[in-house]
Amino acid sequence: MKPVTPFDSASSSLYFEEAHSADVVNARMAPNADARLRQVMTILVEHLHAAVKEIEPSHEEWLAAIRFLTETGQMCTDWRQEYILLSDILGVSMLVDAINHRRPSGATPNTILGPFYVANSPEYENGANICLDGKGEPLRVAGCVRDIEGRPIANAKLEVWQTNDDGFYDVQQKGIQPDSNLRGVLTSDAEGRYWFRSVKPRHYPIPSDGPVGRLLGAIGRHPNRAAHLHFIVTAPGYDSVITHIFTPDCPYRDADAVFGVKRELIAEFNKIDDPDAAERVGFSAPFWSVSWDFTLAASTQPRRAIP
Ligand code: BEZ
Ligand code: FE
Question: What CATH number should be reported for the domain whose range is 91-296?
Answer without folding.
Answer: 2.60.130.10
